[in-house]
Amino acid sequence: MKTIIYSALSALVLSVLLSGCAMEPRADARRLDDDQANQLAALGTNDFGIKWQGRVVGAGEHGVRAVTDGVTTLTTHTGHRVFIIHNRKEFPPSEGTSFNGSDTELKSIGIKLLRATGVKEEEIADVQVLQQFTQSGEIGPVGKEVRVLPPQKSHRTLVIGRRVEGVEVVSSRLMLNVDGAGRVAFMELAWPDLNREVLDRASRYLKVAEAKQVVPRLEGAEVESVQAVILHSPAVGFYNDATAAIRVIYRPNAKQVGQKAVRYIDERGEDVILPRDLDHPREEALKRAEGGAPRQ
Description:
The protein contains four helices and 19 strands. It has 296 residues and is an alpha+beta fold. The protein folds into two domains: 2-134 and 147-190, no CATH class; 196-265, no CATH class. A hairpin with a 5-residue loop joins strand 18 and strand 19.
């Protein structure tokens, strides 16, 4: 499910830059000239092993650039170690195109990709291989009986987290799916550099989080965990904000359906401003007619 969600999110950014099958940039996006498109395509080949199958075209907007040959698309946020790759023929994978190598081999491929982008190895943490499953059902001939078939193993997804100077960077990660040959089929890499001010603040928050003295109370819930973390703008977006925070997770006192409450606070217990992600839609203010009623 996570893989499907993020595949859709990457397509959202790409749709901003490239217009579907016609491979023409949107009117408000700047088309990359041939040299710029070829340079970005060469980066994809050299660092990520992309084999382009035809002429590439590209576009850029707000620092985000994308190139595609109609099959594989590479998107990056210039200068921020953010990359998204999607080969639409290989991902989602079919039964015959899934990677059959070992988990160790898959981890090795991911570490190699991180090294190619200049990631510091001491920041690599929590390397996991997630087994995806599919499940289907059959409807009987009468149309009333439904038989649910046993879950079947599908592809595997590699997820690598990040920790800097003892603080988890919850927004950073490598998420990778490879094809049968071990080449990138889908990849989301968000691993931007962090400035010293954010790291120093995160270091202070480590001590504050251990003391748990500034944690706000939440009615109907109790504190489950308190942790110093670093957050930054996601890979899918036009910003490069970053901040340190103390993450507080609350456990509800009563059993109920829903997510646990989460707050991000500073050393005074006040909510921090979270990093921006996508542009918010602009809405024109409604003009008011005489009498105070809004006029469309």
